[in-house]
Amino acid sequence: MLERFGARDATDLAALVARHAVSPDELLDAALETCAALNPTLNAVVLPQEGVARRAIAAGLPRGPFTGVPFLLKDLGCEAVDFPSHNGSRLLAQTRYDRDSAIFDRIRTTGVVTWGRTTSPEGGIGAATEAAVYGGPTRNPWNPDHTPGGSSGGAGAAVAAGIVPFAHGSDGGGSVRIPAACCGLFGFKPTRARLPDGPYVGEGWAGMAIDGFLTRSVRDTAAMLDACAGPDAGAPYHAPALQRSHMDAISRPPPRLRILLVEGTFTGLPIHPEMRAAVLDAAAWLERLGHIVTPGLPRADVARMMTAWTDIVGIGTALGIRKALKGRPLTPDLVEGVGRGALAHAETLHPTRYLEAVGEIHAFGRQMAAAFAGCDIILSATLAEPPARIGRFDHATEDYVGYRTGPDGIFAYSPFCAVFNASGQPAASVPMGLSAGGLPLGIHLAAPFGADETLIALCAELEKSGAWITAQPGIRAK
Asked: Which pLDDT score, from 0 to 100, does residue 372 have?
């Protein structure tokens, strides 16, 4: 889509609409045509609602930063009356909502033309998107034998392939940043409670989950965050107020920062050589920009945190399944293996374990706050290895704990992202490398709680410096 109109991101497309060089209907036509051509291979877009989109255009779109630009919602959360959802699950297929979520209301004010949803794994659990309800895996536009990540994998694939210039996602353990890394995109997880959760939930996964966006530019993310930031009425808590807008933050470079370079995992284990090389290359870029880079490790009990994360998510998954079953038996035709395993694991836990696990997450957040006492940014890889092959992280197994924390599990593959969901600190994945096989490699940057402006300004500085990859995926709209 972008190439067809001589644009590089959603901001450019909105400018074309504003000067009447192209109409919202023409952009929607292009998105639908591209989807028809590429989605049979990618399996990224579901539940299209062209009629809803056409009516919104005819009724007059809100005047915002993205008026007339096509947009997609993740098929998990972001509840909207006009957009039914499978929520990645056969158990919840064709769920309809009686009111719009606060985040959707705010997205709509930007003027986007929402026309469908993108695939997610069942329950949002996992670093791949291969839910049975969609009839097959979602594939990576860079190489269809590999995953686009999860749980916002469909969003990552749709944006990378050029079906839409940006899309909604959500992140409870890396679910925006992992697809960003796999698909060569920008993914930003704000500080806990920066964006609204209501009215359907008070908080997601004990505050570890938050909405976000998959974009091709920092400015698109910044504008979306500015439109959506702030608590909804009745929110149990909210993030510290921003000193300036995200768009203002990216208008100038950040001060020179002290950056902690982590070459392996946060526990000192090695990562794939190509990932380590990409991290070191990113460190060299940052040094050339004048930042002070020092090797080290954050001092925090990551293993205990991940056990607590696994228990909290397991309990949350079990609650959701039990509510949706409505007394029906738990059968494989309704719930996939990992979901059944999460429910079984939750039932082994003492009733007090949830609050104990939340306490451990809060203690970990204090440890990570202390980790920033001597630095402003923590630099690492986003994943411990290049994007995985299709099937490696499907949901067939009922060993939920092993799937998450086993030696070949999700946490070994993605040992960085969930750390900052637990701490609540802002974190981002930026596209700064390619593997020998031509797959994107994401670089991860994180900042202290509430320091979203510093982090997004640094991401913008890297983008403007030329550090980001410029190659395009093999499957992409022409």
From this structure: 98
120 is catalytic: no
Phi, psi of 430 (to 5 degrees): -120, 145
Give the burial string for 253-279 (b: 16+ CB within 10 Å, else e): ebeebebbbbbbbbeeeebbebbbebb
Integer CA distances (angstroms), 102 to 173, 201, 232, 234, 249, in order: 22, 11, 7, 11, 25
Produce one character per residue of 290-300: b if its CB has 16 or more CB atoms within 10 Å, e if not.
ebebeeebbeb
Q: What's the pTM?
A: 0.98
* 170 carries an active-site annotation: no
The rounded distance, in Å, linking the Cα atoms of 81 and 386 is 38
Structural domains of the chain in order of their starting residue, each with its CATH number: 3-302+358-465 (3.90.1300.10)
State the pLDDT at residue 478. Answer: 59
- The catalytic residue among 175, 217, 380, 429 is 175
**What single-letter DSSP state applies at residue 253?**
P
Is 151 an annotated catalytic residue?
A: yes
Contact 410, 314 (CB under 8 A): no
Look at residues 107, 144, 60, 181 and name the one whose alpha carbon lies nearest to residue 429: 181
Q: 442, 427 in Cβ contact below 8 A? A: no
Among residues 151, 152, 414, 423, the one annotated as catalytic is 151
Residues lower than pLDDT 50 in the chain: none
pLDDT digits over 168-194, tens only? 999 999 999 999 999 999 999 999 999
Give dist(CA 63, CA 154) in Å, integer. 28
* Cα(304)–Cα(301) distance, integer angstroms: 6
Catalytic residue among 74, 152, 189, 423: 74
